[in-house]
Design goal:
The complex is a heterodimer of chains A (277) and B (278).
Chain A: H1 6-33, H2 38-41, H3 55-60, H4 68-98, H5 104-116, H6 119-133, H7 139-163, H8 168-175, H9 180-191, H10 193-208, H11 212-217, H12 225-230, E1 233-234, E2 237-238, H13 240-260, H14 262-269
Antiparallel strand pairs in A: 1-2
Chain B: H1 5-23, E1 25-28, E2 34-37, H2 41-47, H3 50-83, H4 88-96, H5 103-113, H6 120-126, H7 138-166, H8 170-178, H9 183-212, H10 215-220, H11 232-241, H12 246-274
Antiparallel strand pairs in B: 1-2
Helix pairs in contact in B: 1-12, 2-12, 3-7, 3-9, 5-7, 7-9, 8-9, 9-12, 11-12
Classes of the chains: A mainly alpha (277), B mainly alpha (278).
Chain lengths: 277, 278
């Protein structure tokens, strides 16, 4: 880095710009198009100059295409599922981290296999089970479906975050008379708050972004917002103004939430195999 | 606190038992769920089904291409970003954004950007002499879904690699500079060997996820044109929920599960080596 030539600096600048464009153009184009009138969207060549309109957003929250219920379903299913996952994940992850039992490798293997099981394969047995238990087209069914990937993920990640915490603090507290539960609740849990929040947000993102489960298991009563976007694909064409507006609504909160925990993302997304910064 | 693992066992083992049972049965949905024992019929059918075989081949192409591109581009971008001093956090945040986009929206955006009349990328590519019916041709449709997957998941590889780069000892780099190593020699003989473990983790995480998700292809091409992008999860979905042969689909699903279990096994061995499972 010392004595870098101007040519090198320029090269780095140009490459970085290209990479940034590759990443951001599709998202910017989506957001931009959501403020275009239907006529402005369908021009060829694409237009960059237009008079912005809120008509697509207006139509999303009024009349026959109202997506308020979809948003409510999404918040309920993703929110509750991720909360359950975090609570059980913190407990199970802590137990796993502090236990000295044998066969931990098998347990680890089982948990990771569950997390990484192909969604298409998980759909099949759940579809039959839900049909028997009357959980199809129900937000509770979706919560259970999301737990199949959120729960192993939360347990595993919380285990990784607790592993990064020296157990000497809790041991000191227990020598001073705290119970195992007290050591967990008052020492370990507060210290791993970033881990807890990261786990919760990642679970939220995974379930909010789900399409396969919601598409297969839900009918009119439990459809989530990604489904609303695909329902605009019809035989007669696609209403791109509405689609880009819904897309923006789906994407924006998750990008904000995801970037808020950026420092801990590496640990979370590598299932604790790599620790960041 | 290990009892907290019981719900996990329920959502994990019950469906697993069910899918194994399904794969040996004929599943009927008429008037409630009925399963009739079939023996190994589904399994023997699967191993001789040319459609399933061709879907596995398409999956292999898709996985091979996406993983290779994501690893090369991701590591490349990480090395680039690592050199940036100015506005590095902002650049990093922007580059990470695609990772949080719902795959279904990525699929819709793919269709939007490659629309034959008003697609932004169609318009750009037409200047390079590339035809406008991008999703209508076998090879360009495949290329499109590959690029979309690369767009969404390269940031993950980059992020993991950056964590690896941050851990390369500065003394090592300085020592090699003093010994007269050029930038590329340093990269080749010092930096890349030190991050190889982390890069392997990135590869495994991506490999396991690559067979998990199929939303992007589902929305963009739905396996077409003429089955050119019908990867194995899409074949399974069609078998189960369009032709309602759920028993047969279960056998295909277990085949996929075997694939991810192999990668999970390698991953756990790697974790042990890195001391992450303790």
């Amino acid at each position: 880095m010392i004595g870098r030539s101007r040519a090198t600096t320029l090269l780095i600048g140009v490459l970085t710009t290209l990479v940034l464009l590759f990443a951001v153009v599709p998202l910017l184009w989506m957001a931009l198009s959501s403020f275009k009138s239907t006529g402005d969207i369908a021009t060829r060549p694409p237009t960059f100059l237009f008079s912005p309109t809120l008509e697509h957003y207006d139509r999303l929250f009024s009349g026959g295409n109202d997506i308020t219920n979809y948003i409510k379903n999404s918040i309920f299913a993703a929110g509750v599922s991720s909360l359950i996952a975090v609570v059980l994940g913190a407990l199970g992850g802590y137990g796993l981290s502090r236990s000295t039992m044998r066969g931990k490798r098998h347990l680890a293997f089982w948990i990771i296999s569950t997390r990484m099981a192909p969604i298409a394969a998980v759909l099949l047995p759940l579809f039959l089970i839900f049909r028997k238990l009357n959980l199809l087209d129900s937000p509770y069914g979706l919560i259970v479906a999301y737990l199949t990937f959120n729960l192993p993920f939360a347990v595993w990640i919380m285990n990784a975050f607790f592993n990064g915490l020296p157990s000497s603090l809790e041991e000191a507290a227990m020598t001073d008379g705290a119970s195992r539960w007290g050591a967990f609740w008052r020492i370990a849990l507060p210290l791993t708050k970033p881990g807890l929040v990261t786990t919760w947000i990642l679970c939220l993102v995974f379930s909010w972004n789900d399409y396969a489960f919601a598409q297969t298991f839900s009918g009119t009563k439990s459809q989530t917002i990604p489904i609303a976007a695909t329902q605009l694909i019809t035989q007669t064409g696609i209403d791109w103004g509405q689609v880009t507006a819904i897309g923006t609504i789906v994407v924006l909160p998750m990008v904000v939430a995801g970037l808020a925990v950026r420092r801990w993302l590496v640990t979370g997304l590598t299932l604790g195999a790599v620790t960041g910064e | 606190m290990l009892p907290a693992l019981i719900p996990l066992a329920i959502v994990s083992l019950v469906p697993f038992g069910y899918i194994v049972w399904m794969s040996f049965s004929k599943v009927s949905l008429v008037g409630g769920v009925h399963m009739t024992w079939l023996g190994v019929d589904n399994w023997s059918k699967m191993f001789s089904d040319p459609n399933v075989l061709s879907s596995w081949k398409i999956s292999a192409v898709f996985f091979g291409a996406t993983l290779l591109l994501e690893m090369v581009v991701g590591v490349g971008i990480a090395i680039l970003i690592n050199e940036i001093i100015f506005a590095r956090n902002i650049v990093l945040s922007v580059l990470l954004m695609p990772m949080f986009v719902a795959p279904v929206i990525v699929g819709l955006l793919g269709r939007f950007l490659t629309d034959s009349t008003f697609g932004l990328y169609t318009w750009g590519l037409s200047h390079l002499g590339i035809g406008t019916n991008i999703l209508g041709h076998k090879s360009s449709a495949m290329a499109t879904v590959i690029v979309m997957d690369v767009w969404e998941w390269t940031p993950l590889v980059m992020l993991i690699t950056l964590a690896g780069l941050a851990a390369v000892p500065k003394a090592l780099i300085e020592a090699s500079s003093l010994d007269g190593a050029t930038y590329f020699q340093r990269l080749r003989f010092v930096v890349l060997p030190s991050i190889s473990g982390v890069v392997l983790v990135a590869l495994l995480v991506r490999a396991m996820d690559a067979i998990r998700f199929f939303d992007i292809i589902w929305i963009t091409t739905n396996g077409g044109p003429a089955d050119a992008t019908k990867v194995i999860p899409l074949r399974l979905y069609e078998t189960a929920f369009r032709f309602f042969d759920l028993g047969y689909a279960a056998a295909i699903g277990l085949g996929m599960l075997a694939f991810s279990i192999i990668f999970a096994n390698i991953f756990v061995s790697l974790l042990e080596k890195r001391g992450a499972t303790r």
